[in-house]
Design a protein that fits this description.
This protein is an alpha+beta fold. It contains 8 helices and 17 strands.
Amino acid sequence: MKAPGLTPTRFIWMDGQLVAWDKAKIHVLTHTLHYGFGVFEGIRCYKTERGPAVLRLTDHMRRLHNSASLVGMTLPYSVEELVQATKDLIRANELEECYIRPIAFYGYGVMGLNPAGAPVQVAIAVWPWGTYLGEKGLKEGVRVKISKWRRIDPSTLPPQAKLVANYANSILAKLDALKDGFEESILLNTEGKVAEGPGENLFVVKGGRLYTPPISAGVLPGITRDCVIKIAEDEGIPFEEKNLTPEELTQADEVFFTGTAAEITPVKEIDGKRIGTGEWKITRRIQKIYFDAVRGRVQKYSAWLEQV
């Protein structure tokens, strides 16, 4: 079944089996469909000289398990089994590069808030997908707004888990931005400090120093975020985790998003205010090293890549 913006592949991995794309279906009374109690990941496979390689695949599957553990869900497959399933699926679909979406959810069997008795199901899909905010965004930056919606407070839902329900908050922020003619939004936490984008972590450059909100600000511990921190350390770029105000964003020299889907995308404007000069010297430096690394061109980051 062809969907706008989504390119079907041959197979999806479901509960240990390769299933034809159009046959990968669930019951309308699937528990997570009604209550949002599932966990997922976003991962990328890149084309390299040695063949397709997945960026930090094991780390992503560990985070999937951690997300499940945070909400009391026990996955029926180990990290190692999910890593192997992903590689098998990419090979079966004969893909050189792709986006990878694992999801674990409570299936059909019970209704009501208590998911006990519903089976925990796991699926992995792969398909060709460009950068989330567009190739133009990678090159020219994106226009964003400070969202009227606040990031979920840790006392409400665990933002450190990639929980399906959390992303209703992200969708509201995304739609709010699009409605007002922006490409993306930035969410503040309930204390009015900068948290992250709807699906991205956020970095700020000021006076040659790199800053990002701490995990305690209510942000997801992003794997691309972690890669950028490592690159900054290796490049001798001063780095600090810091609670940031909206004013510090608009007064920054550079601002950029990071994420598996968004990769490393500069922000050129916030709430109609141009950010810096638009040269993005540090952003471009980190962006180039990152893209070289994920395509296997930087030896010291070769351990990030898991060959298919």
